[in-house]
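2 proteins. here.
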Amino acid sequence: MVILAPLLNVLHDLLSLYKLGLAIYIILGWLEAFDVINKYNSVVYSIHNFLQSITEPVLAPIRRIIPPISGWDLSPIALFFIIYFFQGVLLEILKRFPS
């Protein structure tokens, strides 16, 4: 039980970091779509590729369940809700097993 609370805290923080990466990936995609930033810039390209490599493996199965509706990809929103759910579960477990 001694290791459970710190482990769950680290997992909660990793999920928060993943949500941040997902949000940046979404905003970066919008900025590229509206030609606000140049997607051929090497820095933008490398950031986009990194974020795509960590988000697409999780978003792809969700896209099979929730296809784009009128061109709107709702899978990131669903992923945000899934992450919020798991973070809530982790917090409830942490409340029951204080460190």
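next one coming up
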Amino acid sequence: MTRRTHLLGLLASAALTLGACDHVDPVHPLDPESPADQQATATLRGRLLAPADASADLFAASEVHLRPARDVEAAIAVATPDAGGAFAFPRLRPDSYVLTVAAPGFLGDPLPVRLGPGETVDLGALALRRAEAARPARVAGTVLREDRVAGGHAGVVVSASGGGATVSGADGGFTLEVAAGPRTLRFDAVGHLSETRDVVARADEVVTLEAPVVLVALPGRVSGRVALRRFETPDRLAEVGVTAARADDPAGEPRAVTVEADGTFVFEDLRPGPWRLRAAARGYDATTRAVRVRADDATDLGVLELPHASTGPGAVELTGAVRLADNASPAGARVLVRISGTQLTFAQLVADADGAFSVAAAADEAYDVLATLEGYAPLALGPLVYDAEQDRFEDEQGERPILVLTPAP
């Protein structure tokens, strides 16, 4: 068998073998899904940065340690920095690591590092802190959300310059471990303005803030829509007044907004807390709605419906009578009642045998009446307004509405 014939046979055998396989998984050294021992190695480098007054041989006496983050018992790789503080770890298996620095009299914060296949990661300058300055100090205090009741102040994030963070408890109390030295504390909570406080932390001591830190809540927004149960028109909706008053401040001045022609309204910038909204209009019973405004949040109250006052407990009777000039019986005379200033029909009535008519009405609305009877000229009267002392609707002369119809010409 010639060498060429042997090579062709091997290729044919390989083709048959591959053809018999359903699938062959590719292996690529840069594919994170490839087996770890077949991935391309990674490189990690960086540089230590020491204070200007550190000794010249500090780096020569220092070590940089690296271990897998997932295995605290794993062997630690060690690199010695050069005279400029530079160090490197070549040929690392792709993984998550934790890097620490051991330098006489100095400390470096543990640093998590993630290396992918074939990556070269440069950490840049890693500052060293003097061991004395790195000894822990503690800051304690109280941080409150202005819009929360007692026991509702948990979750405020308290962080410190130079590292360290915690969250407040339900009473707002916190204790935070920080590096010694001047520190700026920052207080953050969703829906509130951030606050800062400067402190000087001393190693092995607890510094307590003199006064609680109070976070100002961002304002909230409340919207809704007014609806009139009867006689709703854009003009009448625009006359509705909507006010908001703090439920916990009876002496506070209510805020008012304009109601649009479609009944919608919006209160912007309401201070978080309990509020009571009131919608009122002439001719309607007022409607109130309690709402708790949340910091930096929007609340939609939906529809605030106002029933017409003629259907409620405060309704009053609009009464009158139709008379005929020829003293004939007014029975069957028709009376059309309209809301004054509009073309809205309030009621259509039929006078009784004595010509009397009556309908429940709103005390604070004015009405016009029109009496008609076949064979007689129609007669209108109005506006009729309610006199509380007389407990009746009266015309402009202060008289009860009597409509005297004369025969048609």
